[in-house]
Amino acid sequence: MKKKVNDMPLMADTTETINVCHPFIGSKAIEYVTDTLSGRWIGQGPKVELFEQKFNEKFGGNKQSISVNSGTSALHLAYDLCGIKPGDEVIVPLFTCTATNIPFLNMGANLKFVDIDVDTLNMDLDHVESLISDKTKAIVPVHYGGLCNDMDRLNKIASQYDVPIIQDAAHSIGTTYKGKHLTELSDYVMYSFQAIKHFTTGDGGMLLVNKELEDKAKRIRWFGIDRKAKQGGIWKNDITEVGYKYQMTDVAAAIGLAGLEEIDDVLKKRKKLFKLYCDKLTTDVTIVGGDSKEEHGAWLFTIYAKDRYGLQTKLVENKIESNQMHFRNDRYTIFKNFTDGLEFPNMDKIEDDYLVLPLHHKMTADDVSRVCETINEGW
After folding, report:
1. Longest distance between any two alpha carbons in the chain, whole Å
2. pTM
């Protein structure tokens, strides 16, 4: 039966359907984009600078915000800044979007995959501790669904080998850890503005780095060129380090600025709906991260349910969408060289059970009640 789970189609966006996710576009997006299209700059220009400034004021803490064209690009930029070279070992999550790990393939790194922690779907830190060595050059935790990893313990493990931690916080705008912003917990943090994240730029990402890396990060996101020097008329037409074309456009930044203005309300609503799920689900399902709802970023609401296919079938019959969102990376051929012969018992344990339920800004409390009532009836 489990092979049929992926046959569940995306459902039409109708007034009766509760979709699993929905893009959030700020109310002033059309105004800001129209203003951008009416001006001189549609590529990287003043809107990008303003978006970086405003984002940094809200989420940057002691870091500098570097906008790029995707979360994947932000991660690749971080890996480059860390000096990852062919053959270097990197500790990465088994359970994540492939965007976390694909840049390492392009860099020739040696991926050391980590099993999940069953309670959180984050990294199993016992497994991390068994993998880290003098050969390790980076650790990349993903805060699944908006639930932060145990960063105290992870930093303690990493510090023993002086290994940098690159937080993949694609799920985690609004997530805190013991009252701290994520930027206080490591040298690198990546946020994603992909279409269905907390807010979007159409697609885009933000890398937050320490001040001393700001200039280099901005150079290598644009071919290795110092744009300020070029625009100031003193560019010597030289490139001394290899870069990429990863910059954000002003059109994307305009969308982002509109979303950022309303992000507090979006986060407040998502967290309220998350807590409502926790209160109303009474049947025999396990809520992933339910005990941490006060600091949870509330991007995904995930449960473990036996006979997942049966539950999904009932949800579809009641016009409720659900899915798995991400899959274990060892199922993909591109990672076989790093996973063949390895066992991941925790992932095996829950692979047929995990399910993502609807959670987004367009939902109402009545929608959550409808989902919960449908599940509580049994399947």
Report:
1. 70
2. 0.94
295 Cα distance to chain centroid:
16
pLDDT in tens, 279-320: 999 988 999 998 887 799 999 999 999 999 999 999 999 999
Instruction: Write down the CATH number for the domain with range 2-23+263-376.
Output: 3.90.1150.10
Edge-first strand order for the sheet with 286-287 is: 286-287, 301-304, 354-357
Q: Are 259 and 24 in contact (CB under 8 A)?
A: yes
DSSP state of 18: B
Q: 337-374, pLDDT tens digit by residue?
A: 999 999 999 999 999 999 999 999 999 999 999 999 99
Residue 253, CB half-sphere, CA atoms under 13 Å: how many?
Answer: 27
Distance CA 38, CA 221 (A): 26
- Count of alpha carbons within 13 Å of 46, Cβ hemisphere only? 8
> Closest Cα to residue 173, out of 182, 165, 163, 164?
182
CATH code at 29-261 = 3.40.640.10
Each domain of the chain, given as residue ranges in start order, spans: 2-23+263-376, 29-261
What CA–CA distances, in Å, run from 169 to 27, 80, 238, 341, 359?
Answer: 25, 18, 35, 30, 18
Q: How far, in Å, CA of 65 to CA of 253, rounded?
A: 13
- The pLDDT tens digits of the residues spanning 12-35 come to 677 799 999 999 999 999 999 999
